[in-house]
Design goal:
The complex is a heterodimer. Chain A is mostly helical. Chain A contains 10 helices and 4 strands. In chain A, helix 1 packs across helix 2, helix 6 packs across helix 9 and helix 7 packs across helix 8. Chain A is globular and about 60 Å long. The longest helix of chain B is centred in the first third of the chain and has 20 residues. Classes of the chains: A mainly alpha, B alpha+beta. At the A-B interface, helix 2, helix 3, helix 4, helix 7 and helix 8 of A face helix 2, strand 5, helix 15 and strand 16 of B.
């Protein structure tokens, strides 16, 4: 579970063992094996080295390996727990675990906070939120006046920054997100429950022993 | 027994999650057991494959194909695949359990059914088969063993996609393959399939549905002979006799379904518009599922009879909305209170970034869920609503304006499929005079939604929409890759 907290992951051999990952996450051994099928697909899409590089991640998300996107960058950086520029299989599974429908909301809230805390200061600052709003507007080809953007950000700060210090701390974020569960919708991927049916090839080389679990 | 497990603690427990019960049936590669989910007690059917046997007979790819097909055909009248599991030696398909057993076991009690009862089963069968055809999936092995009943007596077609496992990919039947089906008789198989001609899966299924209809009403097979050669001849010549109690409409419909020429044989959309099909109860009684997480796929509308079912989960406060919906088009002049949109805060907006939508990572596979499209507008909510109403009116859709800036549109689609269109538009205020409208497919046909989006919505919104998101300049990604198992 401790997707984020732990820096003490054992050095992965080539791929981490499915049952180890299953024990640490909500996924079953079979689900981890199905995720491995997906992981291989993505990690061999460009560089063929069995690791997910940013270009491969962008290709998977946008069908375009050169498409830059602030939010996709943030996701990539957070998935890359070791910060070595690639997403390894263990990192992939542990990070996706946060998006599992059965993962407690508290973990999703924590992940979203780190996602939006662009500079890693422990706060979501006014200018960070504005930067993100501008990014999504740009991505959607919406043009709003600077005043309108300020207004949107101010309005949100009025609701979220309850102690009025110009930045949203983690406690404020927890309260705000709990009140607005809709904004965490993208932190849950229903597909993860169907993953064994989406990538059924795992059945042929499943390593799950017959008396496992 | 395939089930003597290595698990020393509890041989009846699979992967710690399902407790195996009695054997329900066995096939060439698999045995099917009743089982219970340990966590919820829910009854399921589990099909157990011996992996070695599957591998030895070169069926590995076909097992994957079957999963892929079954996953695609979520329909209230099709047995659903819940989960796939595997160990080193076995593969398990966890499926919906049909508590009512085989439809034809019921026939053993009363050998033939009154036409209204037969009609109900036939409607459910045709609705299910038509839905699968719309997804590019053909059964090609419709026969009594594949028609099950759930606890409420609703029909469940099983083994869609399984034919791949039994028929050598379905490229054609070999003589020996035939002997495995239908207790050794090809009684349900279309002539063109018998003749090993390249065939249209849809038309072959229609023939089989015709045979099933005959059996339901007559109580015996239309084509029957202990001599296989004579049986083949009867089938290829469509040589059958209706018993005297068949109604005129039933005879007419059967004659069209049991047309030995697949080219002139009746189509699905004609069947669902046929007087016999529509008779009596105005709507096909399609099972409604209420407890599904992805309930969207189970919207129960009989487009064929142009009337609306109401989903069970709808709140009752919307009763008058329903009444309005019954009239073909409701051009309403909603009060401002009704259409006041919800507002979006900055994080709501950000959370809609495509960079945060990891479902894309799952490739086209991710798009079997309800689809969305989104546009922004500087127009007022009232102007947006009235434009949506105009678009709906042009397409003959019913419109319902709900609270909090939500507008529902529903109606038959162009393709004439059973699901048709069911769309919800939700209007949000992002900033003063800036609205974002999200359109969601809430249980209609994916292909219909996509067509509506590209052909009706986008062109007609032109001047009020000022930007699109999600689709960009190109249409949304392929929703359901068309897959023919032929």
């Amino acid at each position: 579970m401790g997707c984020v907290s732990s820096k003490q992951f054992k050095r992965a051999e080539e791929y981490e063992d499915s049952s180890t990952l299953a024990k640490e996450t909500t996924f079953s051994v079979n689900e981890v094996e199905a995720l491995r099928v997906l992981y291989k697909k993505i990690s061999y899409s460009i560089f063929k080295d069995g690791l997910i590089h940013k270009e491969e991640f962008q290709l998977a998300l946008f069908r375009n390996s050169n498409k830059k996107n602030l939010f996709a960058d943030r996701i990539f950086d957070l998935f890359d727990l070791k910060r070595n520029g690639v997403i390894e299989f263990g990192e992939f599974v542990r990070s996706l675990n946060i998006f599992h429908p059965d993962t407690p909301m508290a973990e999703k809230i924590a992940f979203a906070f780190r996602l939006y805390d662009l500079r890693g200061t422990g706060f979501i600052k006014h200018e960070e939120l504005k930067e993100m709003v501008l990014a999504i507007l740009n991505e959607s080809e919406l043009i709003l006046s600077d005043d309108a953007v300020e207004q949107i950000v101010d309005q949100t700060f009025k609701q979220a920054d309850t102690n009025n210090d110009g930045k949203i701390d983690y406690e404020e974020w927890k309260a705000f997100a709990s009140k607005n569960p809709g904004l965490l919708k993208n932190m849950t991927l229903p597909y993860l429950k169907d993953i064994t049916m989406v990538f059924p090839s795992f059945v042929l080389n499943s390593g799950a022993s017959d008396d496992e679990l | 027994m395939a089930m003597e497990s290595n698990n020393t603690q509890d041989p009846q427990l699979i992967m710690g999650r399902y407790r195996l019960g009695r054997l329900l049936g066995r096939g060439n590669f698999a045995k099917v057991y009743k089982a219970h989910r340990v966590s919820t007690g829910e009854a399921v059917a589990i099909k157990v494959f011996n992996k070695d046997a599957v591998r030895r007979s070169g069926m590995s790819e076909k097992v994957k194909t079957e999963v892929d097909v079954m996953r695609r055909v979520h329909h209230p009248n099709v047995v659903r695949l819940h989960e796939v599991m595997a160990t080193r030696s076995r593969i398990y398909f966890v499926m919906e359990y049909a508590a009512g057993g085989e439809l034809f076991a019921r026939l053993a009690q009363s050998p033939r059914l009154p036409e209204p009862v037969a009609r109900r089963y036939f409607q459910q069968l045709v609705t299910a088969v038509e839905f699968c055809h719309s997804r590019g999936v053909y059964h090609r092995d419709l026969k009594p063993e594949n028609l099950l009943l759930d606890a409420r007596g609703d029909l469940k077609v099983s083994d869609f996609g399984l034919s791949a496992l039994q028929q050598d990919g379905g490229a054609g039947l070999r003589g020996d393959g035939l002997l495995h089906t239908a207790c050794g008789t090809p009684a349900y198989v279309a002539p063109e399939v018998l003749l090993k001609r390249g065939y249209d899966g849809a038309k072959a299924d229609i023939w089989s549905c015709g045979v099933i209809l005959f059996v339901l009403v007559a109580g015996y097979l239309p084509f029957n002979d202990t001599n296989l050669v004579l049986l083949y001849r009867k089938i290829t010549q469509s040589n059958y006799m209706c018993p005297p109690w068949f109604s005129v409409d039933a005879r007419k419909l059967l004659a069209r379904m049991l047309d030995p020429n697949p080219r002139t044989r009746i189509t699905m959309s004609r069947i669902t518009a046929h007087p016999w099909f529509l008779k009596g109860n105005a709507c096909p009684l399609v099972a409604t599922t209420t407890s599904e997480a992805s309930s969207s796929s189970s919207s129960s509308k009989g487009a064929a009879c142009k009337c609306h079912h109401h989903r069970d989960e709808e709140d009752s406060e919307e009763e008058d909305g329903r009444k309005r919906k019954r009239s073909k088009v409701t051009v309403s002049s909603p009060s401002m209170a009704v259409i006041r949109p919800s507002s979006m805060n900055a994080f709501d907006i950000i959370s809609r970034s495509s960079g945060l939508d990891l479902s894309k990572m799952f490739g086209d596979e991710g798009h079997i869920r309800p689809e969305e499209a989104r546009f922004a507008s500087r127009e007022s909510t009232a102007a947006i609503v009235s434009r949506l109403e105009e678009i709906a009116e042009a397409r003959n859709l019913s419109v319902r304006v709900k609270g909090k800036g939500r507008v529902e549109m529903e109606g038959g689609g162009r393709r004439g499929g059973a699901l048709g269109l069911a769309i919800e538009a939700e209007i949000f205020e992002v900033a003063p005079s800036v609205h974002v409208v999200e359109m969601r497919n809430t249980g209609g046909d994916s292909l219909e939604f996509r067509e509506f989006y590209t052909q009706d919505l986008r062109p007609s919104l032109g001047d009020i929409a000022w930007s699109w998101q999600g689709g960009g300049e190109s249409p949304p990604p392929a929703l359901v890759p068309r897959r023919t198992a032929t």
